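fold-stage: in
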Amino acid sequence: MSISKKIGTVIAAYAIVLGVMAMGEMFSVPGASGIVTPAEARVGRPLTPVSVAGVARRTVRRCAVGVYHC
């Protein structure tokens, strides 16, 4: 197989995958989740890395491991 045929095959496969994903969204069942679900994390919630609790948790963990000299 030549390089141009390989590239053409990859491009065709990519186009088919994108087409199937677009068709899946159009014909999806309401209430059913797809392959990719939306993110639910929000800044300021206790389990997000930017919140005060997340920063404190990382600092404690890094001090215990020895990354920081606490």
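fold-stage: in (second)
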Amino acid sequence: MPRAVLLHHELPDGTSHFDWLLERVGGEQEGRCPTWRVSERIDRGDAGRFSAERLPDHRTFYLTHEGPVSGGRGEVMRVASGVVREMHEAPEMVTAVVAWDTGATVAYRGEPTGDGQTWVFRATPTD
């Protein structure tokens, strides 16, 4: 099953955020994970509506990596991991259902805003 991870990313300047990665399985882009920067934990099912910054795809290496990020870009620590039960990806929308190790299963639906970098997601707990 494809994996999901939420990493707490501490930057050298003392600021931090979370990186949310979803694993792709099959197709040309296998081995690359769509990734968003978020300001809050989104793995508990109570995130509701949240904004996210689309980052370049990350390597699957980051699904299991904890520690220093290359190039002096800080450190990451995994705060949650899970299994992607389903995912549909298109330039104008991403949907995913993730069963997190926190016990929550969450359905996400995201769409980019006009600039294409900022996305707005709706997170809904599932039964």
